[in-house]
Amino acid sequence: MKIAVIGTGMVGQALAGRLVELGHDVTVGTRDVDAKKTVVGPLESFGHTDVIDRGDITTARGTEMLPPISLRLMGPLNTPLFNLKVVR
Question: How many domains does the chain have?
Answer without folding.
Answer: 1
